[in-house]
Amino acid sequence: MNLPNKLTVLRVIMIPFFVVFMLTDLGGQYSNYIALVIFCVASLTDMLDGKIARKYNLVTNFGKFMDPLADKLLVGAAMKSGSAVNSSSADSGWWRQTAGLSLPQAIGASLKRFHRCL
Question: What's the pTM value of the predicted model, to 2 decimals?
Answer without folding.
Answer: 0.76
